[in-house]
Amino acid sequence: MGTSMEQPSTLICNYSDSILYTLELDDSNLKTVELPLNLDWALFVAYNRGKIPESATKIISNTLSLINEVDIIKGYIANDRMYVVLDRFFDGEITDKALVESLSALKLGIQYVAITQKACNAIKIIDEKKFSTKERESLIIKSEENRQSGISLANEICKKFRREGRYFDEIISD
After folding, report:
1. Apex CA 37: angle with CA 49 and CA 120, to 5°?
2. Where would I find the H helices in 91-132?
3. What pTM was computed for the model?
4. What is the pLDDT of residues 130-171, one digit of tens each?
């Protein structure tokens, strides 16, 4: 769940049978933790994408303890623009400094992840939209423009910080 309609719209636009849901979340009785946009957040994403070996999970132990027994995780969206930068970090092409600076510049939206049944029960669908072919085509163009713009911006930032910080393999081997 996110705070912007554009992000999920441009994510699902390639699928002709996709539906965009507008949701309402009553979080008044839910325990929520907010993860700031920093290296710990990126490592948590890496962990959830299977990029951190079991032997190195100690590097995210603080984050894992933060999310223990919460219903909702609130954090920045891991979208297609960000995946390019994250993959470059995981593949050892850029440092943590370049990663965090790039992610900050991309101005990703906020997402809410329901991780318990209690949280799922607090979600109500209030609207659903199926895109027309013309709307989907427009969203596909917008998605590609966003992706290219984000990649270009991240490339400039990565050049600027190419010798500052540590690489992913250095971080997980500590």
Report:
1. 60
2. 96-106, 117-121
3. 0.80
4. 999 999 999 999 888 887 887 788 788 888 888 899 998 898
If residue 130 lies in a helix (H) or strand (E), which one and from where to where?
strand 123-130
Residue 2 carries which DSSP code?
A: B
**Number of C-beta neighbours around residue 19 at 10 A:** 11
- Please check the confidence at residue 80 and state whether its pLDDT lies above 70: no
> Using an 8 Å Cβ cutoff, are 71 and 119 in contact?
yes
Give the helix ranges, DSSP H, for the chain.
6-12, 39-48, 61-67, 80-90, 96-106, 117-121, 133-160, 168-173
Distance CA 102, CA 64 (A): 24
Residue corresponding to tokens 């081997």: 173
